[in-house]
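step 3/5: co-fold with zinc ion
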Amino acid sequence: MRKKIISLVCLVTAAAAVSAQEVTTTNSDSLRTAVREAADSVKQDTSDVIVIRRVPLESGRTIDDDMLVVDTIPSSNEGVSIVLFNDNTWRYVRNRNVSAEDDTVFTSDWDTVKLQAYDIELKDMPVSVVIDLVDSLKSYHYPIIGKINSKYGVRRRRSHQGTDIDLEVGDPVYATFDGRVRISQYQNGGYGNLIIIRHDNGLETYYGHLSKRLVEPDDWVTAGQVIGYGGSTGRSTGPHLHFETRYKGQSFDAERLIDFATGTLRRETFLLKRSYFSIYSKFTQDFDEEVKSEAEDKKIAAQAAAVQYHIVKRGDTMGRIAINYHTTVSRLCQLNGLKNPDKLSIGQRIRVR
Ligand SMILES: [Zn+2]
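step 4/5: write tokens
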């Protein structure tokens, strides 16, 4: 495993060794070749690819504003492409046409009109859930950097379920993580122009009071994409971004994830506890305890990632399951001790990792 990780690092170096001038639309062949060859070398063993995929990016890594996509190269995994940027860095990106089709995060409880898409009571929520924020398939970008005007919590006897960040009208507002736009609409008297994005890890982020919305429901967005411009629409006393983080409809303090003064992501893996959904539960209260438990959180996340199952549904084939979980049919057969991959029955539990 270690060797494979090193080869991935070499891949970045190989790409970086090609000078910026060489990366033009007509002359990116050498870079393409370097990246493709190195990527193929890590993809020979699919189980290793999955391990590498889960190695997190260096802490706080974001996509720069001036990074442009130079090229997109297919990888040997149909569900994942390699995107090259103009600064010679690259990252894996999900091919949504392939991997999203059966991704229940973006199909179940999916409502592009009603803000509250979930029908789960707080008492029925899990006591805690591990949320992967960034890894090599999940990127982060701050929504906006600025002074906090108003924090999550009770404000003048009303619940304020988001964080208000200062901005100027027209400032670009960015998608925080990759995902799909669920809501893009005007909310009279409340959020004003509101965008809600659901992310691969199940989190939703809310962006309120925008002066302009640039995305529509069902659009796929990547972290760092400009989704709208800051404003003061709806119930707002001045230009700011009302930003919320929610899980299955329940809000929690966004400052647990993001330091808005610097734009940095505070952690790569987040253990979201049910107690955080209380409007009285604030980031600053238990941060020391959270930092101490981060190592434990990562261990739980690694264990959860190590084994994963899929329940066979009508229409499933081994090939489709393999694509959706970024693995191969032979690997699935090996994991499940199956001799005949064509014999699947509905309700059967298949180990996919
Ligand atoms: Zn607010």
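step 5/5: annotate
Residues 150, 160, 162, 164, 242 surround zinc ion (CB under 6 Å).
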